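1st attempt posting a full record on here, be nice pls
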Amino acid sequence: MAEPVNALSLRIREDMKLAMKAKEKEKLGVIRLILAAIKQKEVDERIELDDTQVLQLLDKMVKQRRDSIDAFNKAGRDDLSLVEQKEMVIIQDYLPQQLSESEIDQLIDQAIIDTAAQGMKDMGKVMGILRPQLQGRADVGAASGKIKAKLS
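the predicted structure (as tokens):
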């Protein structure tokens, strides 16, 4: 299988080399996790991931870390929570700049106007427009809650 020729995968690979040279064990470990996840998806689906698909994968990894942090905090395992937080910060370095709350609200309002959404039955239409705009830039689950509040 050919190496991907997309900017994000190349950047991650270059960062791995830099982390090796700088002996940054934590960063290197997380980068290897990312590359393993990319490789796994490429092998499973017999495709070469483009930047958008890599972003989706990274977004999913961040969401997994958020869920783990919540679970560890509830269980009083601050040590494990801290490890997940450090991993999440490294993964987020590869995601685009996060949207502010007001930017998310503006996108939601615009999507509701664009779809002429009247109520909860139109939630899917609104999410269909928003998901690509929010991918990797905001917590889609939190945005979903905001949309529900506005449509109900």
